[in-house]
Amino acid sequence: MAAPVGRRGSETERLLSPSPGYGTRAGASPTPPEEEDLRRRLKYFFMSPCDKFRAKGRKPFKLMLQVVKILVVTVQLILFGLSNQLAVTFREENTIAFRHLFLLGYSDGADDTFAAYTREQLYQAIFHAVDQYLLLPDVSLGRYAYVRGGGGPWANGSALALCQQYYHRGHVDPANDTFDIDPMVVTDCIRVDPPERPLVPPSDDLSLSDGSASYKNLTLKFHKYCLMEGASRAGPRVGGQASLAAPPRAGTEENHADASVLINVTIHFQLKTINLQSLINNEIPDCYTFSVLITFDNKAHSGRIPISLETQAHIQECKHPSVFRHGDNSFRLLFDVVVILTCSFSFLLCARSLLRGFLLQNEFVGFMWRQRGRVISLWDRLEFVNGWYILLVTSDVLTISGTIMKIGIEAKNLASYDVCSILLGTSTLLVWVGVIRYLTFFHKYNILIATLRVALPSVMRFCCCVAVIYLGYCFCGWIVLGPYHVKFRSLSMVSECLFSLINGDDMFVTFAAMQAQQGRSSLVWLFSQLYLYSFISLFIYMVLSLFIALITGAYDTIKPWIYRPRLCSCRVCPLSRCSLPGPQLVSAPGRCWRGGERAPGLHRAVPGQPHLRQVPPRERLRLQPPLLLRQGRLGGAFAAGELSRSRYCYWTLALRLRRLTLIYL
Fold first, then answer.
1. Which positions, given as ranges, span the membrane (predicted)?
2. Are 151 and 163 spatial neighbours (Cβ–Cβ below 8 Å)?
């Protein structure tokens, strides 16, 4: 068989035959076969797919598979995103509809300010919510159904539970500055069941589930009166039904000192409906059960009772679904199966590469211990672990899990839209990030990864110091400004507000909100000015500038070597490039500069290597760039013997003084 010719043939011969370099001595004894075989396998392992194709003609199957996987995973994410958007929109629109139906006088955007300030307003709001619930089939534009036994644990099998919580005993006398409170909380509930026939009007034909009293006979436990126990609190009965009883007034016999104190009033019920929007995407509609909770919160006892409505949606499979002329959904199922097979194949290939690296690492460590008596450090062992493969394996696992869950959702066996969206979204993010690995094989597309790799250690140390100051500002702002500023009410809100201030967002709004509180507390207003001005000055003009300077410095360090030609023919490794007999000067595997490989990183020398000045000038030029990346231009020049120790110390001290001057001035 004829030997290969051309560029590929020369690469193959260079790969499969010993190539003398620094560390080999003329006339040295031939390399043992075991050592030569391990050297060749190490050299081939640290090659890029482009070099492997030039050396042996091996086609980059994983690269082609990743391109196909990106396409199918992205298309799958778009299809699921459309369905998930319809489901989320349906839940949000139903919540808005419930607030307009059950909350008296509600308007959009009034969630934080919607409240009751008088007893009459509170009673009207409670009765309006229950009345609207009973008239829901007649007044609502949507199709809803009652759920028997959906009133919660206090409903005792009823459809709606109207409960109030109050202190068991309480005496409050602001005139004398005295109070006497029993902190035991008592819960009283009135159970309401909708009738089997429409109500006209609802207040004349409604009774409690036990037939003892009407829900409009409710009397709340305010601090000025208490409710008579038993049947005496109901008004006179008319026709076997309890008549409407007005709330007790101050000054009556019920206004005595041993009164209860109201904490909150809750109305809990459930409604069923069907989402027909899914027919747009050729899917079977979902059946929803909404758990509605209306809360009248009086725990602050401030004269203002906020009113809120919260819903929780539960999705379940509809019974006996039937859609006339429903399209075939087999294509979407087939596409999901293709995605699973593609990700499974990618998982096997990447896992096999990781396993091969692990086995080669063990063989290399054992060989170095037996033949050279050297112990390979953990960081050097990690050079055999390809982090990009771990990223791809993680994305494959997430994609397979999310696709299986998506199939269950479309088959109406599962309803975890949020979990499925998180799995598919994260996997798609990792798949697209994994494409950067293949861009780094091209010399001029490696700037981002090279800059991040060089700057990451310094950035992490810098962020640790900044985080301490940032957390201090968060806690201080929360405890001092929280009661006066809406953006500082919780630690999460404080962190979000301060982070937006770093980017220059909402500065005037934040200052203006504190300006409105100047009349309430001048001391807090003065503190807020010092707090905000110091934070903005420190983090924008110093911290953010230094953070950008770290990234810029890393980029300036690698910029001279971005457009240089290849400086070495492989990933330098003690066995992959140099002959073992004799002293060697090598860097860690995968840390040399090559257009089709990783960007240069930190230079870690092998223990026992000679000083760099002992290296021949030609080899010194080859090893100088990694040193420049690690120690800067001065360190590289000093290590290469081009700068004396005294001048190196002088320039290093001058640069440090210059940096300190820039920082403090």
1. 333-355, 387-407, 419-439, 459-481, 530-555
2. no
